[in-house]
Design a protein that fits this description.
The chain is α/β, with parallel strands linked by helices. Helix content is 36%, strand content 30%. Strands 2-1-3-4-5 form a 5-stranded parallel beta sheet, sandwiched between helices. A 5-stranded antiparallel beta sheet has the order 10-9-8-12-11. A 3-stranded antiparallel beta sheet has the order 13-14-15, with no helix packed on it. Helix 2 crosses helix 3 and helix 3 packs across helix 6. The longest helix is centred in the middle third of the chain and has 16 residues. The protein starts with a strand and ends with a helix.
Length: 250
């Protein structure tokens, strides 16, 4: 039995899809559904479903941004969408299954059959997280927005407005160009995976910097960076070569 979660900001859409699943697919059991994206993130991380039906167009944060916030990504994904053909090509390029709204029972059956075949193969789950991350990064290049899950809300920030990130164990502080600071309960490796590596670089076990915000470099010792706000950030010896290469410094 395939354990599934449905995420859609419209309750009627959830009920309609659940009815179709119950009547046209005996292999899938819907274990939970969510209209609130923050609840959905917690639900996926806790319940660890085999399959997620995800509405990509939601008002607070969209489906791409929801995927960015997940810790658990070892599931198959079927996107439910009314997107145009251009966006659908992105799903196809990333091997993501999708269903166009209103959902046709035959399309649902075919999508689930593909999931079944993939899950019974020996490579069923090996590349799922990579595929999801690629899909998220493709969308990030278009929107430039990343979601940050704070204690009681989710905010969207333009990654170009981030100066640097500093870790403190399982927490990371995001320092913004306007002086704002956002503390998220994610380690720095998780944040590093969210940010585009063409703009951000890990320079220390505790620091990630925006390459466009580097004002200068102190070469003494392993080195330090001077950012646009005059903040000085240490460079670890293990990352010295990478930052020097990124800045074209010999």
């Amino acid at each position: 039995m395939i354990k599934a979660i449905i995420i859609d900001d419209e309750q009627l859409a959830i009920e309609s899809l659940q009815w179709e699943i119950e009547n046209f697919s005996q292999e899938v059991k819907v274990i939970e559904s969510f209209t609130n994206p923050k609840d959905a993130i917690s639900g996926i991380n806790y319940l660890k479903p085999d399959l997620v039906f995800l509405d990509i167009e939601m008002p607070e944060i969209d489906g791409f941004q929801l995927l960015q916030l997940l810790d658990y990504k070892n599931f198959d994904l079927i996107i439910t969408t009314a997107y145009n053909q251009y966006a659908i090509q992105a799903f196809k390029a990333n091997a993501i299954d999708y269903l166009l709204k209103p959902i046709d029972p035959d399309d649902l059956t075919q999508a689930i059959e593909k999931i079944k075949n993939r899950q019974t193969s020996q490579t069923s789950t090996k590349n799922i997280e990579t595929v999801l991350n690629n899909l998220v990064k493709d969308n990030l290049q278009k929107t430039k927005k990343i979601p940050l899950g704070l204690s009681n809300k989710i905010i969207l920030v333009d990654y170009e407005d981030i100066l640097y990130c500093k870790s403190d164990g399982s927490y990371t502080t995001i320092f913004m160009r306007n002086g704002d600071e956002h503390v998220v309960s994610k380690n720095i490796k998780h944040i590093e995976e969210l940010l585009p590596d063409t703009v951000f670089l890990r320079i220390h076990k505790s620091y990630i910097v925006n390459l466009n915000e580097i004002k200068g470099l102190i070469k003494q010792g392993s080195g330090e960076l001077i950012l646009s706000n005059e903040k000085i950030i240490p460079i670890s010896r293990s990352h010295r070569k990478n930052i020097f290469t990124a800045l074209n410094i010999s």
